[in-house]
Design a protein that fits this description.
- This protein has about 325 residues and is of the alpha+beta class.
- It folds into 3 domains: about 60 residues, Structural Genomics Hypothetical 15.5 Kd Protein In mrcA-pckA Intergenic Region, Chain A; about 80 residues, Pseudouridine synthase (2-Layer Sandwich), CATH 3.30.2350.10; about 140 residues, Pseudouridine synthase, CATH 3.30.2350.
- It contains 6 helices and 16 strands.
- The radius of gyration is 22 Å and the shape is elongated.
- This is Pseudouridine synthase.
- Responsible for synthesis of pseudouridine from uracil.
- GO terms for molecular function: catalytic activity, acting on RNA; pseudouridine synthase activity; RNA binding.
- Belongs to the pseudouridine synthase RluA family.
- InterPro entries: PsdUridine_synth_cat_dom_sf, PsdUridine_synth_RluC/D, PsdUridine_synth_RsuA/RluA, RluA_PseudoU_synthase.
């Protein structure tokens, strides 16, 4: 069970509990409605209706857990758990792993492993993905354990997909989840740090590949060179917008494709690495419950460390 507990301040005396839940706790109408129907909202240990009139110092308790099922088969996996609390699970995804089941990948996905973990630890949760990564991109992914956490983190993420499947820019009033990646690229960038502000376009509805094109949406990537190598750089990239393949498209357009990127990069990288050398290594966001900043990191995977060593030996 996961609970939100609050004591009603004097300024809410005389107001309905529904207003308090929306304004003070930031709960959605949908969550409030469902919790009220299930009897999961209590005042002073008693189930109340949503027209209940509050008194100062009332004790409010909302059970944000509920019985849910999901059509994902549990599979035993060695999950790399970076952080966990009552509301979220953050895992470090290995490369070559699909995040969620699809028609072509119905098993062996991260979601299969997470469901199994929830079952083994007696947590009545379904997989609510807050962030996703391409199959061949490794790194941090957030899973919300309940509707409340998913709602709160989705507001921070504020990157809903548009009709073309790309991710919209964050709303101006949102607090964004800051996502940082490490990429290993061909060649040495002219500047050790800077911003790539170039629009990204999907040339056709059925196209997987994206391109820099003035017809596209504004896309912003901040970068910083962490290490200079021989004709290669280790680069930190921070997303300000979240277009599909944004980092890969931007770096390739700049003449510095990511090692192993067969879609936007060079041929012949197989001897170096078997996938694009891109790792989501850091997330900074507000805890749904405490509203305090969580800063989580995952070190470079083995294949990217090996790549760096190979480049140094050339």
């Amino acid at each position: 069970m996961s609970y939100i507990r609050e004591i009603v301040p004097k300024e809410y005396e005389g107001r309905k509990i529904r207003d308090f839940l929306k304004e003070k706790l930031g709960l959605s109408t949908r969550l409030i409605r469902g919790a009220a129907i299930d009897g999961r909202i209590k005042t002073n240990s008693k189930v109340v209706k949503m027209n209940y009139v509050l008194k100062a110092d009332d004790h409010i308790e909302v059970n944000v857990s509920k019985d849910e099922t999901q059509n994902i088969a549990p599979e035993k996996m060695d999950l790399k758990i970076i952080y966990e609390d009552d509301d979220i699970l953050v895992v470090n995804k290995d490369p070559f792993m699909v995040v969620h089941p699809t028609k072509s990948h119905q098993s062996g996905t991260l979601a299969n492993g997470v469901i199994n973990y929830f079952n083994e630890t007696n947590q009545n949760c379904i997989v609510r993905l807050v962030s996703r990564l391409d199959m061949n991109t490794s790194g941090l992914i957030i899973i919300a354990k309940n509707q409340y956490a998913h709602m709160a983190l989705s507001k921070q993420n504020a990157m809903d997909k548009d009709k073309n499947g790309d991710i919209k820019e964050p709303r101006e009033d949102s607090i964004s989840i800051e996502k940082r990646y490490i990429a290993i690229v061909h060649g040495n960038l002219d500047a050790t740090e800077g911003t790539i502000d170039l629009p990204i376009h999907r040339p056709a509805v059925d196209s997987i590949k994206r391109e820099v094109n003035e017809l596209g949406q504004r896309s912003i990537t901040h970068y910083k060179v962490l290490e200079r190598l021989k004709d290669a750089d280790v680069v930190e990239c921070t997303l300000e917008t979240g277009r599909t393949h944004q980092i890969r498209v931007h770096l390739s357009h700049m003449g510095h494709p990511i090692f192993g990127d067969t879609l936007y990069g060079n041929e012949g990288d197989d001897n170096y690495i078997a996938r694009q050398a891109l790792h989501a290594y850091r997330l900074d966001f507000l805890s749904p419950r405490t509203k305090k900043v969580l800063s989580l990191k995952a070190g470079l995977p083995e294949d990217m460390n090996e790549l760096i060593n190979k480049i140094k030996q050339v």
